[in-house]
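User: Is it possible to get a 3D structure for a protein together with its bound compound? The compound here is zinc ion. I've pasted both below.
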Amino acid sequence: MLHPHEATDLSKPLIISAALTGSWPTKAQNPNLPVTEEEIAAAAVDAANAGAAIVHLHVRNEQEKVTCDPARYAKVRSLIRQSGCDVVINMSTGGGAGQTTDEQRAEPVDLRPEIASFDCGSTNFGAGVFVNSPSFLDGLADRMKRNGVLPEIECFEPGHVANALRFIAEGKIDPPWWFQFVLGVRGGAPGTMKQLMNMLDMLPEGANWSVCGIGRAQLPLGVAAMSMGGHVRTGLEDNLFYQKGVLAESNAQLVARLVRIAGEIGRPVATPDQAREILGLRPLEPVVP
Ligand code: ZN
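Assistant: Yes, that's possible. Here is the predicted structure of the complex:
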């Protein structure tokens, strides 16, 4: 993947993903977390204006609990598009352990988002277990392919990359592949450079990759990914803080910091259409009210 004597091409546009809400964070932990459809759409537009090419969405119910309700996802998307924002939309299929069924998790794929998350294996996750069985993943890969949705192959540990390689070898996930290394989850691979390097070494030739560091791993791993020619995810889903002891004001604030750092190291920031080109996504579709 990265050959030792190959210089990193820093002229490659940097795709910044903003993970706005997640399944688990609460307003009690950070009052700036967007949870209603209106708040999530507004946060998406702000993050896009700050430089995010992709927004990764979850939705919540009236009690602020995670849901996979396609109507809520559809509403967020139409609010974003109605505001004239062309950001790439990535819908989560993660759901919430014990709170959503496999079928519910897969339903948003039928909305044909440009990207949907594909959690490429099971892992302990905090105090719970995040189950992604082989049969669930088989069905999800097929459903994404039928709907023309790019799977964001989320890997929480190296075994998940090995699972992805099997899906690829079996023709269940087509190129160009889009990997998201989620590092620092309690139960998954630690958020360290060595873990990142190990997983990078496993990637197939030509794969696009991004890093999502959890909590205090978010910024250092993100900066490392940017410096190595990879892409980066930020946002309140993964980290509620701007710095130690200081809550983030918004998703856009976290995006804006990455844009500044990218400028300093000479990485241009990808527009949504540049991200579509890099990831082989279809052109933006008109708004369906
Ligand atoms: Zn997510």
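The longest helix spans residues 251-265. Residues 63 and 95 are 15 Å apart (CA to CA).
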